[in-house]
Amino acid sequence: MPRLTRKFEQELPDFQSHTDARKWFKKRFGDNFVLTDSQIIDGEKIYFYHLIIDRTAYEYGMKKLSEEGYVSGMDLPMSYHSVEISETGLVHIVY
After folding, report:
1. Structure pTM?
2. Cβ contact 84:62 at 8 Å
3. What is the mean pLDDT of the chain?
4. The pLDDT of residue 17
5. Most buried residue, 3, 24, 69, 77, by most Cβ within 10 Å?
6. What's the sign of the alpha-carbon dihedral 49, 25, 4, 68?
């Protein structure tokens, strides 16, 4: 899967909730869209996802990170996009 662009983010639908945005991403990207964490920030719950671009590099890097506590190089960070979705449906993609 190619890396996303800012244009992709600008053209996203106007989501009304986290649930709406999550459903849209899951329908479009399936198992390549995975929840990693959530936190309350400034009183609003934010959900953090990885949108996997290169499954092989992602799985290798995550395994190494889990086993060794660190990874070097850019293979892991370039294997996914971080996607943040607020409870109100605002989406931010980290490039």
Report:
1. 0.89
2. no
3. 94
4. 97
5. 24
6. positive
CA distance 52 to 69: 20
DSSP assignment string, the chain: -PPP-HHHHHTS---SSHHHHHHHHHHHHGGGEEEEEEEEETTEEEEEEEEES-HHHHHHHHHHHHHHS---SSTTGGGEEEEEEETT--EEEE-
Token pair in block for residue 59: 């799985």
The residue type of 33 is F
Within 13 Å and on the Cβ side, how many CA atoms surround 62?
12
Band (pLDDT 50/70/90 cuts) for residue 3 is confident
Q: What burial class does residue 21 get, using C-beta atoms within 10 Å of its C-beta: 0-12 exposed, 13-18 middle, 19+ buried?
A: buried
